[in-house]
Design a protein that fits this description.
215 residues; three-stranded antiparallel sheet; 9 strands; 31% strand; globular
């Protein structure tokens, strides 16, 4: 027969085992499972190496401007300084009292001259010889001439001015020009006549039409 001490020890061991079994199970009797490992924290994205370049135009700036083209146009304007077309010319004839004055403006190249090396005024005066003659049943004589040549950058021009005095100037009907025969570099000339009382006449002169009619 076992002693009472042995019986108490066995009962205590059974109670401890039941308590351990209850601690390892939930009240519903679900088996114990270890918790799932935690997901790693998200790593923040690295910052951009450099900020984006802002290409938007500044306030007041033309969004369609082309710096290269603007620079080219500015250079051309600096060189020319005036309207400059090889083969072309501008001419005006004015009448005042008994005098007719013709003024011609044209590139040096039209006269067969270097545009970067214009002639001096004394040498340039020869280019006024026989350029034009008044037309009409009266007599006119040359009283004055002035010829100046100049160069700006790679462009050069010449201004020729001739004055005639006519005995009966009202009989003058127009002016004939020999420019195209003397200097084949001319292809066309925009000509205008400015007469008394505001009378005007405009015409384009060419090698086939080298006369400016006043009326």
């Amino acid at each position: 027969m076992k002693s009472s001490h042995s019986l108490r020890s066995g009962a205590l061991a059974a109670v401890i085992g039941a308590m351990l079994l209850a601690a390892c199970s939930d009240p519903a009797g679900t088996p114990y499972e270890p918790p799932a490992p935690a997901e790693p924290a998200a790593v923040p994205a690295p910052e951009a190496a450099s900020e984006a370049v802002d290409d938007s135009p500044a306030a007041g700036e033309d969004p369609f401007a082309d710096p290269a083209l603007d620079a080219e146009e500015a250079h051309a304007d600096d060189e020319a300084g005036e309207v400059h077309e090889h083969g072309a010319g501008e001419l005006a004839v004015t009448r005042e009292d008994d005098f007719l004055t013709m003024t011609l403006e044209a590139p040096l190249a039209n006269f067969g001259l270097s545009e970067s090396d214009p002639p001096g005024d004394t040498d340039a005066e020869a280019y006024a010889d026989n350029l034009a003659e008044p037309m009409g049943p009266t007599r006119c004589e040359e009283t004055e001439r002035s010829v100046t040549a100049r160069s700006t950058g790679s462009h050069g021009a010449m201004t020729v001015s001739i004055v005639w005095r006519c005995k009966k100037i009202e009989r003058i009907e127009g002016m004939r020009f020999n420019i195209f025969n003397l200097y084949p570099g001319f292809r066309h000339i925009d000509a205008v006549y400015l007469g008394p009382d505001g009378h005007q006449a405009a015409q384009e002169l060419t090698p086939d039409n080298a006369e400016l009619d006043f009326y």
